[in-house]
Amino acid sequence: MGPGPSPDALSRSEELAARRDGRVASIHSWELVTAVDGPGTRMTLFLSGCPLRCRYCHNPDTWKMRDGVTTTLDEVVRRVERYRRIFQVTGGGLTISGGEPLLQSAFVARLARATRAMGVHTVLDTSGNLGRRASDALLDDLDLVFLDVKSGIAGTYREVTTAELRPTIDFGDRLARAAVPVWVRFVLVPGLSDDPENVEAVADIVQRWPNVQRVEVLPFHQLGAGKWERLGIDYTLTDTQPPTAELVARVVAQFRRRGLLTF
């Protein structure tokens, strides 16, 4: 892949065209982590922009695409290639996260095609809300999808995210038909998503997908609270405590009783 033009060299209209066809993207940040965002040592790429407004979001600074840094596909691919040997040794790879990465689906598709050609294990971390934007070719180039099922009850989902549950279910159904491996993630928030009925509803949804390899119960934390304050956004979970070990165990047990491998 030859070097593309620097974003600084593009006119406004050229940059918009480059965004539409996936040659550049708005990037929030990237980090190298181990055993957090998938198997092995991974580069996690955080794209800017998200249509959801999850009440427990620990990265509200990724919500607006305009707050990211315009970065070329070539630059991202070169950075991934720099760590390819580490990925091979550790069984790691690239995790494309956000924000909501499918808000920039053309870029994600180009990136996944490039990393597949390099033999780099590639994960998409998504809410599924914009799953309709993912092309069949993109799904073919992914090794794994982290699908965040934030609630199993439509009303609770709206309360958590301000969005609708149905697109996530539809995307999960599509991933199942395409036999794309999936890890389901469920954030456990006391007083918000912890109701036994809601957990059972999540399990009902997940059980319809035979391609789900595991469910991860992620305990709510307050590590992102300071970002809300700095951004001047009203944070409604100030007084919410992380779930107790007993609550986490109860929820994990609910999923396991449904035959789902759960951590």
Commentary on this structure:
- The chain has 263 residues and is an alpha/beta fold.
- The chain has one domain: TIM Barrel (Alpha-Beta Barrel), CATH 3.20.20.
- Helix content is 38%, strand content 20%.
- It contains 10 helices and 8 strands.
- Strands 3-1-2-4-5-6-7-8 form an 8-stranded mixed β-sheet.
- Residues 1-5 have low confidence and may be disordered.
Structural class: alpha/beta
Secondary structure tally, helices: 10
Main sheet makeup = 8 strands, mixed
CATH-defined fold name: TIM Barrel
Q: Which runs of at least 5 residues are low in confidence (pLDDT < 50)?
A: 1-5
From N to C, what is the helix and strand string?
HEEEHHEHEHEHHEHEHH
CATH architectural name:
Alpha-Beta Barrel
Radius of gyration: 18 Å
Q: How would you sum up the global shape?
A: globular
CATH class: Alpha Beta
> How much β-strand is present in the residues?
15-25%
**Mean pLDDT value:** 95
Provide the domain count: 1
Straight-line distance between termini: 40 Å
Major sheet: arrangement of strands = 3-1-2-4-5-6-7-8
Binned, the helix content reads 25-40%
Total beta-strand segments:
8
EC number: 1.97.1.4
Keywords: 4Fe-4S, Cytoplasm, Iron, Iron-sulfur, Metal-binding, Oxidoreductase, Pyruvate, S-adenosyl-L-methionine
Main location: cytoplasm
InterPro entries: Aldolase_TIM, Organic_radical-activating, PFL1_activating, Radical_activat_CS, rSAM, rSAM_sf
Summarize the structure.
Its EC number is 1.97.1.4. With 263 residues, this protein is an alpha/beta fold.
